[in-house]
Specification:
The protein is mainly α. It has helices at about 1-5, 10-25, 30-55, 60-80, 100-110, 115-120, 125-130, 135-165, 170-190, 190-195, 200-210, 215-220, 225-255, 280-290, 295-315, 325-335, 340-345, 350, 355-390, 395-420, 440-455, 460-465, 470-510, 525-535, 540-555, 570-605.
């Protein structure tokens, strides 16, 4: 194969593109195809929306393009290092320079739907340039191409930098903190902007979005033509520098030791405690949480998001979220822990080869998770409630805290054995420490499911608190204990009866089932509807429905971003009820439509 890939840069890039397209074409089956079609459809909607911004609201175009840039930067990090169908390690033995391989890999990176969709969005630049005449259109077309290449290159360089940077617990935690803070800024970053002031903030923010690489095209269109050519030339120079940096990072990646965790200390290993059952499994799990860089990063992400999100609202003197810092951390930590067995790879055979070890394994994982998450969540909850001075929140935090802890401990082991996503064994992971080798889309869907299921377990406690605070606290404790015990019992019984199937799934992946319908079998309009419903249904249900409902009940006057509380009093309750109903209807649509497909298929085959 080397003689085919190394004749020249053009041929090398051509073969990379063909390989990428072939891999993508062969993977378009079942849910993979459905996810791709839905993702492309959603991306096209956003792309044409960007063009509409250039036509109707041109002043907001730099901010919109900055959102696309943030997607290229944070998107691959959120899904475990991005889609690396063509890994640099595959080509480390080819007789080619790192620069040529990097250029070819870059060409392969453009052979996919994401760059094509982004290019459509960047056509907003020549549309914006139409206001400045034919020269503005030409500059906009050139800027669209250079901006696309710059965005892709920045994404690759940042992922490569993080991949080389994350080689210790401290760096893994640092990356997790940065990512968690970025997610919090995406949701509540408007608060500090409002706190800083109106007109002055608008002025420097307009300069900032034009100074970002995504805004260079807009700046070139607005500048005189000589300066515009200088901006485009400087952009091309930045692309060359990014390519050189990426080539150097790739060469370091393929020659550096690739490991998915921190090795044990030199010298005699520490013995496990002289005990048995769940305690041994808990001790093993605690060491895994301490050594696995992916788990450390996800844990830091969960707690940093939980801390930063309320603090952003504090900048506008809204302390309502501070008492719930620990509760947010529990939910986020559970979402990042939903694939426990999949993250361990085929190590499950050790449990299956030990008679009667399934119960101890599940209970030990629950105990370890509670020991890691519980104390920190309790401290954050108590400290946040005391510091905020929100005395009304005490029944809520004391009742919801045990319910969420128990619910999280039960949900994560249940989903780990019922919705397992196969991943690469930790000792076989590639040179990207952000990636576990699992299906990023499936893991993301699992995380979203946990974000909905864990708060739902605490609903009985919330309802009891509304009736009687002390009864609500008792209900929360009882709900947490029953959830951890009952869901854990279902999990280890499932592991006892289906352990061999789970091990086979982790080793060989899901077996093809030609007769079983999938989401890909739905009509295209239903596929798009299901994707949109799962993506945005939480917005009307939780932040625009349930949260303002609780605030109305307790007479909390902070309106923050809740739509209903900004309306006249006569319209507030109807709006809240409408938002809750809308969220439930969207979740019902997303769940019932695929179920109807399965039932109709079973009736046909029967």
């Amino acid at each position: 194969m080397a003689h085919l890939l190394t004749p020249g840069p053009a041929d090398l890039a051509q073969h990379m593109i063909r390989m990428r397209l072939t891999l993508m074409r062969n993977s378009l089956r079942g849910d993979n195809a459905s996810n791709l079609y839905i993702g492309v459809s959603a991306g096209l909607i956003l792309a044409f929306g960007t063009i509409a911004v250039a036509v109707l609201w041109p002043a907001y175009l730099p901010l919109t393009l900055a959102a696309w840039l943030s997607g290229w930067i944070f998107g691959p990090i959120f899904v475990g290092g991005g889609n690396e169908a063509l890994r640099p390690e595959y080509f480390s033995m080819l007789p080619a320079t790192p620069g040529r391989i990097a250029t070819a890999l870059l060409a392969g990176a453009f052979a996919g739907p994401a760059p094509a969709v982004n290019l459509i969005a960047l056509l907003s630049l020549p549309v914006y340039g139409w206001r400045f005449g034919p020269a503005g259109v030409l500059i906009g077309l050139a800027a669209a191409v250079t901006t696309l290449v710059t965005m892709v290159m920045i994404s690759r360089v940042i992922v490569a930098l993080i991949g080389l940077f994350v080689r210790s617990r401290a760096t893994a935690a640092a990356v997790g903190i940065v990512i968690g803070t970025a997610i919090a800024l995406c949701s509540n970053g408007w608060a500090p902007i409002v706190a800083l002031g109106g007109a002055d903030t608008t002025a420097w923010s307009e300069v900032l979005v034009r100074a970002l690489p995504s805004g260079w095209g807009v700046a070139a269109i607005e500048a005189p033509w000589l300066l515009a050519l200088a901006v485009l030339a400087a952009n091309a120079g930045v692309i060359a520098l990014l390519l050189a940096a990426w080539a150097g990072l790739l060469s370091r990646r393929v020659v550096s030791a690739a490991r998915g965790g921190v090795p044990p200390r030199r010298g005699a290993p520490r013995p496990f405690p002289t005990t048995s059952g769940a305690r041994v499994t808990a001790a093993k799990e605690l060491r895994v949480w301490w050594r696995d860089l992916v788990r450390i990063q996800l844990l830091a992400l969960a707690f940093s998001y939980a801390v930063v999100t309320p603090l952003l609202l504090v900048t506008i003197d809204a302390w309502i979220m501070v008492p719930f810092t620990g509760l947010i951390a529990i939910v986020m930590a559970a979402a990042s822990s939903a694939n426990l067995y999949g993250a361990d790879g085929t190590a499950l055979w050790l449990t299956l080869m030990t008679p009667g070890a399934e119960r101890a394994d599940v209970r030990g994982r629950q105990l370890a998770w509670l020991l890691i998450i519980g104390p920190a969540a309790v401290v954050l909850t108590l400290a946040g409630t005391l510091v905020s001075g929100e005395t009304w929140a005490w029944p809520w935090v004391l009742g919801l805290l045990p319910a969420l802890l128990g619910g999280g401990a039960g949900i994560i082991v249940l989903l780990a054995v019922t919705s397992l996503v196969p991943g690469t064994d930790p000792h076989k992971r590639g040179g990207n420490p952000l990636s576990t080798g699992a299906d990023e889309t499936a893991e993301t869907s699992l995380a979203w499911l946990v974000l909905v299921a864990v708060p739902a377990i605490a609903l009985p406690a919330a309802g009891a608190i509304l009736l009687n605070p002390w009864a609500g606290i008792a209900t929360g404790v009882l709900t947490g204990v029953l959830s951890a015990w009952g869901l854990g019992r279902i999990a280890y019984r499932r592991l006892e009866s289906h352990g061999i199937e789970l091990l086979n799934l982790m080793k060989h992946g899901p077996a093809p089932q030609a007769d079983k319908p999938t989401t890909a079998d739905l009509p295209i309009h239903h596929r798009i509807g299901v994707m949109i419903s799962y993506t945005i249904a939480w917005l009307p249900l939780f932040p625009q429905g349930l949260v303002p409902m609780v605030m109305k009940i307790f007479g909390i006057e902070e309106r923050v971003w809740f739509l209903a509380l900004h309306l006249p009093p006569i319209w507030q309750w109807p709006t809240i009820i409408f938002m809750i109903a809308l969220g439930l209807l969207m979740y019902g649509y997303a769940i019932l439509i695929p179920m109807r497909l399965s039932s109709s298929s079973s009736a046909t085959t029967g």
